[in-house]
Amino acid sequence: MNTMSIKKGDTVVVLSGKDKGKQGTVLEAMPESRKVIVEKINVATRHQKPRTQGEQGGIVKKEAPIYACKVMRVCPKCNKPTRPASKVVDGKRVRVCKKCGAEI
Description:
mainly beta, two-stranded antiparallel ribbon
């Protein structure tokens, strides 16, 4: 079982590559391939054929997956990039910010 510290809906900052320093929201997390799709990050151009009659084809811009190790979670409280620590509260594992201690 592959587990990632980044989940769908998290705000992340890109650490390396052409979009370094940009922030975005995770649209999809793929733990089996250790990749994430981030909103408005790593946008690729696709040539798409119309699939059904009446549908429009053409050139479409679409977010491509990037490795989860190239992004870091941003704490909603202190607004700093952080590696989330895990803590057990009431028998449940929760993610905690290493910088301010807030529950993520």
